[in-house]
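Researcher: Checking consistency across runs. Here is Rhomboid family intramembrane serine protease again:
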Amino acid sequence: MIPISDNILNSRKPIVIYWLIGVNISLFFLEIKLALGDQLGDAITSWGLIPSAFSAAIANALSGNPSAWIFVLMHSASLVIGIFLHSSFSQILGNLIFLLVFGKTLENIIGRSRFLGFYLVSGVLTSFVQILIDPNSTTPVIGGNGVIASILGAYVLKFPKRKIDTIVPLVILFIPLDIPAFVYVFWWFVQQMFYGIGSLNIPYAANQSFSSYLAQFVGLLFGASFMRLLKQK
């Protein structure tokens, strides 16, 4: 299933969404360039979040080594940078489609600056959850899947039964359907089984795993909680 539009007429253009899409695409083209030069693996190791390295830096800093906080700050940057990197064409395409369809209405509702903050906090939170689940992992964590899960959680809480224009591709046929927004909560986790299609062949980049899905589930709950808090206010 491919979401196309929620048919909600927004009063403002989703400028933040456009900028985020531009940044994601620009960095993905950079990844392709590095992959062609066999440099992508080293770049992902430097830019992606490595749970074991982050955990070791924090443990060293808490043990009484003041200079270790410098390494904590360096690894903290990867909490943000990693959410803008992707390991395959299918992953970035799927994430950006969901970002556009479900994110543009949220940006219009909560405002541009608040949406950008929500986007970044969601990414940091879901990445940090993966560190807590598997602090000894040496596999770089990349991708905005956790962020999109948070956006989806916020959207579905606000518009659970909103009909989403959807295309279901069947071989050479494309069947148009109207599907309630809440169905995409389930489909979001299913479609990630296909995120290996068009892989950039990063030898040790993070693939979908138990920790990844659990982090995204936390992101889903965070997005829903965030939207509920706004509704109460």
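Researcher: Does this match what you'd expect to see?
Model: One thing to look at in this run: The chain has a mean pLDDT of 84.
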